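Predict fold of Inositol oxygenase; 322 aa.
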Amino acid sequence: MVHAPEVNDYVKSRAKQMDEVSDKIDEVNLLKLKASMAAAGKTEEEISIEFDGESKFDSEKDKSTFRQYENACDRVKNFYAEQHTKQTLEYNLRIRKEIRETVRARMGIWEALELLNTLVDESDPDTSVPQIVHALQAAEAARKDGKPQWMQLTCLIHDLGKLLCFFGADGQWDVVGDTFVVGCKYPEEIIYGSESFKNNPDYYDEKLQTENGIYEPGCGLENVLISHGHDEYLYQICKQQSKLPKEGLWMIRYHSFYPWHRAGSNAYRHLMVPEDEEALKAVRAFNPYDLYSKSDAPPVVEDLKEYYQNLIKKYFPEEIEW
Ligand SMILES: [Fe+2]
Ligand SMILES: [Fe+2]
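Predicted 3D structure, encoded as tokens:
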């Protein structure tokens, strides 16, 4: 087992592709969030102010919003075709077992953040920010809003599961993207709808394609298998090795579970227990810090390091087994 994994050229090339696709995925989700705000009666100008802190309203932009959304969806089409095909129940059970049974590295949270940041040297200035910048922007936005320390820390670490890239993951379909439940019917709320799974063998398994599939109605989301990626991986680590409250754990586990937490969605309600309503509230409270802190001014890492290292000490007293 390595202490800190090596960043070789292969890992870097996978990571760069992951970073690019991850940004495109965020763009789709951001545009959908804006669309739901518009549907709730906010004007384009109010939405602009909320996201960018300034009004960028003009009628041309207004007209092009739908086109923008369609283009953004087009850019992630191939990614989702692959993710929806390969995230099978069989894969899910196998990767969970594999991850449970091995320790891939030992390092602290800050060290992990710095390592994740080395994955992609230079990012596309138009679309993406370095990982550590995204982490600190999300955390600082929560801090400015007076959110509790555990939530600031949750914002800081929420994408650390992308370290999977170091541990043999392909980096795309098995690390990033919106998540969904495997082992039951695919709801239409998943991007591109259930049709998008037609190359997935589970799609043709009648037992898996009923409303409840392999689950009991009302079994609770804690007991369902969510498609595997950076969210689930980090959740399992934090559940066992951190002192984060359950709300923080929910924010980590469900942050890409858009078919469930997107405003207006009714997917998976039949599998929930009452406590999952609390989880939904927590994830919806977290989501804006993930999606719209990217346009904030870039933080100075060195100035913030001590503050966040103290938070890390409080909630992750021991070195982490990754
Ligand atoms: Fe994420
Ligand atoms: Fe994120």
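The pocket of fe (ii) ion (ligand 1) is lined by residues 158-159, 230, 255-256 (CB under 6 Å).
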